Amino acid sequence: MNDKAVVEKVNVNGAVKNYPYALFSLFLGIISFIQLLGLERALAAVGFGVLALSKINKGGNPKGKKYAYWGIGLGIVYLVVLLVVVIYKGSDLLCILRQK
Question: How far is the C-alpha of 99 from the C-alpha of 97, rounded, in Å?
Answer without folding.
Answer: 5
